[in-house]
Amino acid sequence: MTTLRLGDTAPDFQQDSTEGPISFHQWAGDSWVVLFSHPADFTPVCTTELGKTAALQGEFAKRGAKAIAVSVDPIDSHHGWVKDINETQNCSVNFPILADADRKVATLYDMIHPNSLANATVRSVFIIDPKKTIRATITYPASTGRNFDEILRVIDSLQLTDNHKVATPVNWQDGDDVVIVPSLQDPVEIAQRFPKGYRTVKPYLRLTPQPNR
Questions:
Q1: Is residue 207 within 8 Å of residue 194, measured between CB atoms?
Q2: Is-contact 10 126, C-beta < 8 A?
Q3: Model's pTM, two decimal places?
Q4: What 8-state DSSP symbol labels residue 198?
């Protein structure tokens, strides 16, 4: 089993889901994708997470992103779980949940950690860009619910920094000042890229208003 790293191509796969058979790369198309795993169906923390993901579909869509979940339970179990999610979280699950009973996806994405969960997937998140490149990964223990506001924040940062020569500092939120990358030194280019100016804290730490705002 190969551990996936940032910059690797997200493995393609074919798997059944609550929305029918999925060929992953074809389904992803030109979208950003959040692929996130669950240890099993009918688990309390994951029930709240899937409800939150359904509620945030508009926010994902604004960013050109789609969510897709995976659990090792079979499709009939998934459909029963979706009913519970919709009832308890006051939502309508509107994204696919992969039925990974053969653990094909879990194995491809190294989601089974025997020291943590011997036979089920750990709770991992993969943020994948439109080129099918893995851009960020986060893995949580079973006891800790994921922060989907943070997942959206990471997508915002990746999309911003892909298009501008900036990085996002600690606790950055969309609209906050950003950091000019140290490799950018040409004053003419800096003036063109950042017409609102910038503040030099140290030669390597220059803050500027977010350029796409």
A1: no
A2: yes
A3: 0.93
A4: -
Fold of 14-146: Glutaredoxin (3.40.30)
Enumerate residues 6+ apart whose C-beta is below 8 A from 116. 122, 141, 142
Contact 134, 9 (CB under 8 A): yes
Domain boundaries, the chain: 14-146, 164-208
**Using N-to-C axis directions, what is the helix angle for 44-55 and 75-89, rounded to 10°?**
70
**Distance in angstroms (rounded) separating the CA atoms of residues 46 and 43:** 6
Q: In 3-state terms, what secondary structure has residue 133?
A: strand
**Closest residue by Cα to residue 119 from 46, 178, 40, 195:** 40
Instruction: Return the number of other C-beta atoms located less than 10 Å from residue 192's C-beta.
Output: 9
Tens-of-pLDDT digits for all 213 residues of the chain?
Answer: 568 999 999 999 999 999 999 999 999 999 999 999 988 899 999 999 999 999 999 999 999 999 999 998 999 999 999 999 999 999 999 999 999 989 899 889 988 766 555 556 668 999 999 999 999 999 888 889 999 999 999 999 999 999 999 999 999 999 999 999 999 999 999 999 999 999 999 999 999 999 998
Instruction: Please list the active-site residues.
Output: 46
